[in-house]
Amino acid sequence: MGTISGKEFIDRLDQLGNEIWFDGKKIEGKISEHPAFKGIIETKSSLYDLQKNPNFEDKMTFFLPGKEEPIGLSYLQPKTKADIKRRRIMIEHWARQTQGMMGRSPDYMNTVMMSFASSAAILVGKENCFPENILSVYEKAMEQDLSFTHTFITPQVNRSQTIFGIPKEPISARVIDRNEKGIVIKGARLLATQGGITDEVIVFSTPRVFFDTDEAYAFSIPSNTKGVKFICRESFVLGDSNFNYPLSSRYEEMDTIIVFDNVLVPWDRVFFYDNSDAATNFFTQSSFLAFAYHQAAIRQIVKTEFLLGIAQLLVESIDVSEYQHIQEKMSEIIIGIETMKALLDKSENDAELDEWGYMRPSETPLQVFSTIFPKIYPRFCEIIQLIGASGMVTLPTENTFHSEIRGDLDQYLQSVCNNAEDRVKLFRLGWDLTMSPFGTRQTQYERYFFGDPIRLASGLYNLYPKAQLVERVKSFLDINKEE
């Protein structure tokens, strides 16, 4: 089948009948028509249509040997640096379609699945490991253009590094049985973004200080598997007006808790289980981080460019470009964009073939990127707030412009270069990006996109090659020489 259209995506999603709970009620009927999901599903639909667009198809798809149907390029396993740059162009197109606001656009999880398949050999010959199942799911995903969500965060019952015993009833999702049909999972996982509005859910364990083997597993199952329940947070879709809510009406990605109620994971869907070493090594040695960082970096650059465009329009709208403090603030954003672009370029230029013949972006520049962005993104949002000042607060709604007081708005809310309606549109965009529930969620999301920023910084410090630099200093000082 290959790539699907937006309509095919929506029809398939509606037919899944995933168990989704919103505001204490189980959602019935078509999920694509629910107010909390309608906007994001329509946006995802437009991404799939982009793969079918004759003007973009060659940039968004590729062909497998012996196959006649085009495959989404996000599934391409790169063998050359040119392949990596080809993937970058594809990711940029999808990111620009959403202004970089969708952290879980389909290409992110497709990239994760591709990286798993490219590194499946790590599990060959290991106890309770099934690399062939990873390849099977990957091939199915390409053939059917499947969409995925994933979850690897455990409930925050106790975040200390000491285990005080395991409760009788599982809290964190764990294996409670193994039988001839597969493994049985009970418990919960947190933060499955777009949970319930994808074909599949990938569940995997990440390295930790103390590892219970019952929680050392990885698998992928259909989202409508019996016993899988998605519990939604409050929706940040405050209305469907693109005027009032230009971003949240389109790009609000629901975050969910996933509850596994005695869920049977068939053996052909299990990647590994009861193996702490596999859980640790597959995460750290696979190409997962390199490619996940790479996709996220491309999206975050596109997002920051959009933010710069908003900031510049605000500056022009109220005519403050000649103030040096404004120029300094705008330069901060420009420096951030160009620094991130340089790190992304370096990761691609320094890419190398791994032991299985796949080209990986260099991970160190991307690790640096992942420690920078959580700091600068909140600052850039603050800059928009500072430029907009009180204008970010007194913002009439769309209906007000269609009322008998329209004349007052036209008179008192115009700007140097915009009429009142266009000025309010712009300022509402800045508000939705930085001050609305959607905007503040975006800030928190980017802060923790790859986990705790402090741990990311510690990982960078611990892995960065420092020994040769230390030896240079010792040599310069002529110290610590062996007698």
Task: Describe this structure as you would to a colleague.
- With 483 residues, this protein is an alpha+beta fold.
- The protein has two domains: 277 residues, Butyryl-CoA Dehydrogenase, subunit A, domain 2, CATH 2.40.110; 185 residues, Butyryl-CoA Dehydrogenase, subunit A, domain 3.
- It has 16 helices and 14 strands.
- The strands form four sheets. A six-stranded mixed sheet has the order 2-1-10-11-7-6, with no helix packed on it. A four-stranded mixed sheet has the order 5-8-9-12, with helices on one face. It has a two-stranded antiparallel sheet with strand order 3-4.
- Strand 13 and strand 14 form a beta hairpin.
- The longest helix is centred in the middle third of the chain and has 30 residues.
- The radius of gyration is 24 Å and the shape is globular.
- About 1% of the residues have low confidence.
Number of strands: 14
Give the name of the CATH superfamily of the largest domain. Answer: Butyryl-CoA Dehydrogenase, subunit A, domain 2
Global mean pLDDT: 93
CATH architecture type of the largest domain:
Beta Barrel
CATH topology of the largest domain: Butyryl-CoA Dehydrogenase, subunit A, domain 2
Number of helices: 16
Strand content: 5-15%
Seen as an oligomer or otherwise, the chain set is single chain
Helical proportion, percent range: 40-55%
Number of domains: 2
Shape: globular
Largest sheet at a glance?
A: 6 strands, mixed
The end-to-end distance, rounded to whole angstroms, is 71 Å
Q: What are the secondary-structure elements, in order, as H or E?
A: HEEHHEEHHHEEEEEEHEEHHHEEHHHHHH
